[in-house]
Fold these 3 entries.
Entry 1:
Amino acid sequence: MAKAKRGSERREEALSRERIVDAAIELLDTEGENGLTFRALATRLATGPGAIYWHIANKSELLVAASDAVVARAMADVAAHATARKTIRSIAVGVFEAIDAHPWVGAQLSRGPWQTATLQIFERIGRQVQALGVPDGAQFTAASALVSYILGVSDQNAANGRLLEPAVDRADFLETESARWKELDAHEYPFTRKVATQLRKHDDRAEFLAGIDLILAGIAASL
């Protein structure tokens, strides 16, 4: 009996919450949110669904835990810089790349805007907003504007990536879209026609950071 109990304890320790979350992240990355089921997760972990329920109550809790883990790792990898501006850009890139690598995270964060993962980002950005010298009464607005932009654009970038079939080359796609923009009605879409060439040549990450710089310039101008 004692031996059986020790063996059971070892199996329980092996199937930790962290291991379940890691397996869920892998499953979400390969199969998407619809592919995340406790049965599929149990198969991946070589265990029964009941053992998973011991650690995670339901799929919603699992999605929150998985997105929390991805964001926490991204924040841990963010390098501290001498200036608040550079640190904000580094945080922004960390989130952008994390959501690009795990597209389901953006959708999950938009579903629950103030869950732990979002608060982690908000806290890190908020500290840098304080370091910029933003007055107390404007800090919430400045931090919210930055976080909303970071999450919104990162999620949109990931969504755009999901629209492309694996066989579709991004450069070819942008070339086609650029040509379509140029053919739009000149009276209804004068601006869109004008920037069509820029669409073809643009870099998503560079454009994302340019937007961060615009917000930071606005914050600086308001001080």
Entry 2:
Amino acid sequence: MTRTDHLSPLLEFDEVEPEEDCICGGCSARRRARLHAAPVHEGGHAAAHSIRRRAAVLMAAVGTAIGGGTAAAGQAAAAPIPGPTPGGGSAAAQPPQTPQGEVSGLYGEASGTRAFAAPRAAAQPLTRAQIIQRAQGWVDQQVPYSMGRYWSDGYRQDCSGFVSMAWGLGSSQTTWTLPNFAERIGKADLQPGDVLVYNNPADPQAGSHVVIFGGWADSSRTRYLAYEQTSPGTKKRDTPYAYWNNSGSYVPYRCTGLSGGSDDGTAATAFPGADTFGPGANNAYVTKLGRLLVQRGGARFYTEGPGPRWGEADRKATQAFQQAQGWRGAEADGYPGPDTWRRLFS
């Protein structure tokens, strides 16, 4: 018999009072047990009192353990699964740390429906150049990432607020509502100013992301220049298509208010992509590049043109311009990248 088994009758005697005038053996035994279990100051037996107190403590401890274990199990089940540790593992394996806020007006004012976005004036249509310039503005200012704060221009400082700002919407949207202001396109149609959207139904607010496409970085179209708002602040970086993770789930979109839609972009300052230039290239961007280089003093390299077909004159003129910026080595290889293109327009 265990100690608790031996003590159990004592606890039961406390709950059932014996009849004072009953002479049966059961009531007599219960009266004697009650006498021995009574507190010492009431005349009870000290040893019995100690046993009773230890039994009560033991039973309370058992109850706490059982109840506490159940509560702990419930809490553990309800606790959220922790996400990846920032900086832990490879960059390609980590999802973006980009929780986003709700649809809101400028500076966080309450918003209503999709119509809350202010329409653009017909006299000032949105251009690709404007989108990239606005995105670059946040890059230059290194706007800190925040899902609850608003930058000086009124837009929320998260990924969807960043795109809302670059697209000139009159409110901060979310990755789920941005497609309402855009048309879906294919990878082959991507041009600077378009976006790539990933929506995660399992974690809509913290697991979704959107980036601005800034142009292809290689001729195989496996890498591109991405403008994005992610912790700790706005970035512009060479990115694998479609993104570092969840690559197959990113969807390309184009803002419906974009001027020119699928135009060739020669009037815009947005970099068209590295594959636009080099041996075999034949397009209006090559002509635009040559004309800009001539304006910057590169006329001596051209015996004719500039024209749409890439040639050695274009490479030498580009290299001379790059070296004039103080660039050396790979930065002055004669092939324009985003920085060279931007400098030509600045």
Entry 3:
Amino acid sequence: MKRTLLLEGRTIPYELTQKPVKNINIRVHADGSVRVSAGPWVSPEAVDAALRQRSAFLLRALDQFAAQAPLRPKPHTYGPGEMVYLLGKPYPLRLQPGPKVEVRQTPSHLLLTLPDPEDPQRRVRAMEAFLKQTCLTVTTQLCRQYQPQLAPFGVPMPEIRVRSMTSRWGSCSPAKGRVTFARQLVEAPFDCVAYVVCHELVHFVHPNHSKAFYACLAHIFPDWKAQRQRLNSYSYRQDPHP
């Protein structure tokens, strides 16, 4: 359900999802969207009242994300010389013609080989496939590293999927034993990726963002606050030598 609310003279659109949750949950995403979940017994007017009570948090988060907008990645065309981030390190892209589609990582650059380097659609398909597979490899490695710490709580080694996502870094489906990560996550530094992996694994124990959730997260990944800040601010993109 799409709704709008007037806060301090600003019109704030938000999407309300009603489902069996205990609290009214407010989430502000990096793209400036606001999503709220509440129980079906909670009236829209009560949701509006909760948003007004948390107006300082809501407006501050929207302003912070708006200030970060210039740092966010722009759509890739993967042309020659374009900078591609891989685990926090910038790699200029080089193109060469060849009969086989291949992406090769060197210490100084990424080399994309394909039959027609001038075709932007083929470049995008080849590079996105490479980055998706790299993200899957890295997140699988990290899940194998951290899952044993949560195994005593009944957390399984999950099925891992990767897909392009623009409003979140990952999601967890405990009932299906599955975690899904944003393909874009592979551009971030390794420690940021580790934070997201741990965040999603802890959701098998605590499906919400309660104090118990963050206590569990801090137990297995003490540096989570710093890495979340680094990831969501895209600060690693300002450093030419991450």
